[in-house]
């Protein structure tokens, strides 16, 4: 029923996953001393930047971004500006939430903020790409009857997977195993990343298996 | 007909209470059973032996401390976790593992100088942890996890011990190594060089520290007893396990140490090299397997120590307790009073040497002194405690008197040795030790398993009770009488059976049998009545089996308790428990709005223009109400998260948490040096106390509960503020530095005594008044029909509220009495007279008639508990109040929002999420009030609030400390029924009422409960059993942790204390919950009386 969209989605997700892979592997080859644990912040920014660039490019090329009502340059610029603003606000929001969850307030603020940037580029950016800078639409999407297209459902799944992954990633932190990945925020960002990749796989698969039940009333 | 209804409801009340009590009792029996098998309790005997003790035969008492001992000096080298396998040397082993053949010095010495040295396996008693072992081989007794002595607060050994005895006779004890010794024997050493033992990963600090000083000390002459405790081997085992090259290095180092020490020994010196316990193949210890208990002991002296080379009669294994009497007699000090060891016979000559410098006791003399001391201890102990079985006790006593008669006769005849008597003395000593060990030092796996099963079964029963509450509260629900009778009968049968078979009764088993049988019978009958009810109502039986399917376990409200229980099984999570619980509460709280949004209930449907109409059922709430409720919910969520985050500032620190600083608010004001900081803290505390009081009164006034003139209102208006003033003054007085205000010293000491006692008195009075007269209803006649109500003049009432009349009218809840009366009288009255008219009376505060006294009760109790805490905790208590309020409001708002869907309208069921949040918040504030589940962190200062000079009994201080420790458990458990009331208190005018009754939707609030006594009691039962279930599951998890991980390294440090705290917390919580529920029942009785009084008046 949604074959075309599902195929587009699967290929998009393949590209995204491949870019994440490349963002991890390429610097490891090119930059001396690069490792996911050792230079974790570098890895985070590398992956975030790649995911941002690739998502924006792919979603723009596919034309999933909601149609703008006006086509003036000023309006487009203001949308762009608002998107950037939302991106920044979302980083601050995630930072606050993570701190409230128990991350150190001052000690490793840079690490926490980098983690917030990663979360933002994995979740908020997708919302921006699919729904545009419209918070009410974001809130609406995350309800049972809120999805209005296959892409909305896909958004629900990937965002939920990423956040749950990050949440589960916090579990090993108190354990006394002394592993390099138990340092804040390594396990959480790895959890978020794994959750994101799982979401990328799960979303097309789930939609494919439930394509008969999926009905979107308004579009 | 008219009288039947009240009696019926009253019967239900008793039934509800007895059901809850029965449920709690089931848990208690399970916990008691498990703890009886797991925790071994022993009383400490505080007497000490002295040199003047008459232990030798003969007419005149001989002071044997004066006599020349066999050795003047002893070097005690303790190598932690020196397993016997490490010490043995096998020359045929060509490919030794890293831990094998690394201590060749022992074997070499034993073969080259057989009469100077011996190597024995040295068997420790469980628990094989270092602290308990040090206690064991210095006191000679069998320390258990809980040694009930008179020092709860410090870990110092108060029992008679070797170190103490050495000090008594003037020997200079020099210590170096593991700093545990310094805590166990504070100020007992002539010189001491402790090194930090905590970091298990650090293999070298302690050992290198010792080695820097060891040789110079031995060569020097300012010591008589040298104790050196090496930790490297143990830490290496914990870190790498025994089968690791690091272990080889460590053992080789120890080999060198022993060689160097042997080279430096003088003739009158005895060297003891020993391990305190062994280790498993993974390097852990703590349990009772042979690998953990079998350490090594190596004895050596430059002068001949043994009569000859090892003979066949020598012991194969030396119990650890035997070191104490042996060392004591070799060095000429009295055997410590509570030692149950026996002297190591090969070290003593078979016949008495005639005089000479190397004098000492013959084998028989040593045995006799030892037996006499052991008998004396046994007599003292059995007069104090009754845990040694009486028949074995009398048998031992008979044996001793026979042996003593034999020995005395032999001495009179002039014989000096008798192998037969020596053997029977040895047998006597062994049997004493075995008896004591059976009593103190063994887990009872059968009891543990039974306890585990009982707790699990109680959890299951509790869950089924909560699911079946509606059926249980119905008219034909199963009774509790038959199960109780059966329980009693089975208990008596079990007792009789035990009496017949064993000859004595063990109460735990009888209780277990009774509990199990009553549970089974009750469940069977509940199942039967459920099927009959479901047959009657079609297929409306609750399906509780489906709740346990994997799909349901992933629901956040069940996933979170599951995670919480899983976290209790790992020591890291128990250590970080405070943060873990906060994390879980935060996650679950976030789930509420997310879930509501997922269901599309958070935002009003019309809010979103894209939303097509008709997707949702027709909204019963207007968009503005929805928006208001959602914003309340989000605001309360913000408050909740804020208080969660701030509560992290009040945590204490466990010793396992390395880089952790305890909260500055935890130390009492009097300890603060900086005057400005002190003032700041004081002002903060007083402000939060004032805010607590103000908020409580504000809330009560808001709902119009402060208008009448009953006991509760008196309490709220006068006692509550007075109590806070008392508390504030008490803080001020106790914070004054001791040396300032010299001329006021007497007044200050008087105030320190009087203020807290006044506070206690006020608290008791307030709670009593609430109990006595819980009604907070003010009646005002609208048409002045009744004479009684109109006698209260309106001005007084206006003055008592103190808010503007308009606001008053807005908040005070008018009640419609005709409606009430109709529902009460079942239409018996001829309703024609007043039916169409306006309501005759307004009752202010009737809408919150149940919750107001409960709230006030909690508030008063909170101030009382705050009195027992350090001053800084006032802030934390304020956060607790905020969090409670936020939780209640979140629950209320989400109930209102979910009522949109129309599925939730059946009864007053409190869903799992708020109950889970409520119970987790109790644990969270346990940590946020500075408590930790460890014994050193108990705030003993609480026992001295109001009793600065100490106590005479133990009951009062123990209960004060319990109240202090479980303050948050108490508050949350007492306040638990508020979860049922709050959605009704906060109910939006016109939603439910508009649907329910035809009249102009006045809010009926808690009177709704009164209208449906059946649903009320079943909802209350369900709420309480759900709360008990969540608590019980946590207890079950910690019981499991203790049972499964009983050989874990951290069992006595982490899991066993956690189990004790969890179990005591459960006990306190369940009692408090019962108090809360009883208070609700009490209010209900008062309300029925009030109605009874009102209705004749009104109908007149």
Summarize the structure.
Chain A: Keywords: Endoplasmic reticulum, GPI-anchor biosynthesis, Membrane, Transmembrane, Transmembrane helix. Chain A: This is Phosphatidylinositol-glycan biosynthesis class F protein isoform X2. Chain A has 219 residues and is mostly helical.
SSE diagram, text form:
The complex is a heterodimer of chains A (219) and B (1100).
Chain A (H helix, E strand, L loop, with lengths): L2 H28 L9 H23 L10 H28 L8 H14 L1 H8 L3 H7 L8 H20 L16 H24 L10
Helix pairs in contact in A: 1-2, 1-8, 2-4, 2-5, 3-4, 4-8, 5-7, 7-8
Chain B lengths: L3 H35 L2 E3 L29 E7 L4 H4 L16 H9 L4 E7 L6 H10 L6 E3 L13 H7 L4 E6 L1 H5 L6 E5 L9 H15 L5 E6 L1 H9 L4 H20 L4 E6 L15 H4 E7 L17 E2 L3 H9 L31 H22 L5 H24 L5 H22 L4 H23 L1 H4 L8 H21 L5 H30 L13 H4 L2 H12 L3 H5 L1 H22 L24 H25 L27 H28 L8 H25 L9 H28 L5 E4 L5 H4 L3 H8 L3 H7 L5 H9 L15 E4 L6 H17 L5 H26 L13 H17 L26 H11 L1 H8 L3 H8 L6 H5 L10 H5 L1 H32 L6 H49 L1
Parallel strand pairs in B: 1-4, 2-7, 2-8, 3-10, 5-6, 5-7
Antiparallel strand pairs in B: 3-9, 8-9, 11-12
**Main pleated-sheet profile of chain B:** 8 strands, mixed
Strand count of chain A: 0
Q: What are the segments of chain B in which pLDDT stays under 50 over at least 5 consecutive residues?
A: 1-8, 149-153, 539-546, 606-619, 783-839, 989-1003
How many helices of chain B? The count is 40
Mean pLDDT over the full residue set of chain B: 80
Rg of chain A, alpha carbons: 18 Å
The largest chain-to-chain contact, stated as pair and per-chain residue counts, equals: A-B, 21 and 29 residues
Structure classification of chain A: mainly alpha
Q: So what's the overall shape of chain B?
A: elongated
Radius of gyration of chain B: 36 Å
Can you summarize the main beta sheet of chain A? none
Number of helices of chain A: 8
- Please identify the oligomeric state: heterodimer
Q: How many domains in all of chain A?
A: 1
The end-to-end span of chain A amounts to 15 Å
Subcellular location (chain A): Endoplasmic reticulum membrane
Keywords (chain A): Endoplasmic reticulum, GPI-anchor biosynthesis, Membrane, Transmembrane, Transmembrane helix
InterPro entries (chain A): GPI_biosynthesis_protein_Pig-F
Main location (chain A): endoplasmic reticulum
